[in-house]
Amino acid sequence: MDGQHNSTTPTNNTPPNGRKLLVVEDEHFIGELYNRALTKAGYDVTVVVDGLEGLKEAQTDKYDIILLDLMIPNMTGIEILRKLRDPEQTPKFHSKVIITTNLEQREEIRGDIEKQADGYVVKAEVTPRELVEFLNTVK
Prior knowledge:
Elements (H helix, E strand, L loop, with lengths): L3 E3 L13 E5 L3 H13 L3 E5 L2 H8 L6 E5 L7 H9 L10 E6 L5 H10 L2 E4 L5 H10 L2
Parallel strand pairs: 2-3, 2-4, 4-5, 5-6
Antiparallel strand pairs: 1-3
Helix pairs in contact: 1-5, 2-3
């Protein structure tokens, strides 16, 4: 699963949208669930399970959307988000960053994260289909 790239042809009833999506998620089951649902919806999906690898991959600026888990090995999602938003560390960055978490954040922490991110999803509260519908609205 580490650094897996999947460009499976979408089903006939779902036209490919051609958008590139990076999923930084260390829980294998969730990563696979997102990979299948998003690939079926026409996204070109890459899944990484490690924070350092996720940062490196995100800094390539080849993704339209990044789903970023907060609790991942070697570097937290918040640390990655700060580095991506810092023009000194990531000079060319245009991706939309959607935070994914199951942790209940205190209001001030969640507010700070939401200011830096382009969206915030609580994994336990959203189905893969709802995630696809949400991502289809991200411009």
